[in-house]
Specification:
The protein is mainly alpha-helical and 72 residues long. The chain is 32% helix and 0% strand.
Length: 72
Amino acid sequence: MGLEGLVLGVHLPAGWLWPALVIFGLVVCTALLVLLLVSGARFDDQSHTVPSTPGPCEPFCGARTVAPVYSN
């Protein structure tokens, strides 16, 4: 029968397996490193507040607040 289609190496160039395994290993190691760095972060810790910058927040304002109108 036609079992040639089931063999993956027939359609790929010679020597592809080791570079593919090395690249896959690097991707997995990078993902584990990022996971390790992020897992130590305390995103729900409210003790640290981000300092606000002076001036208006435009164009990054999330909630629209009406500025008070001063009359002379």
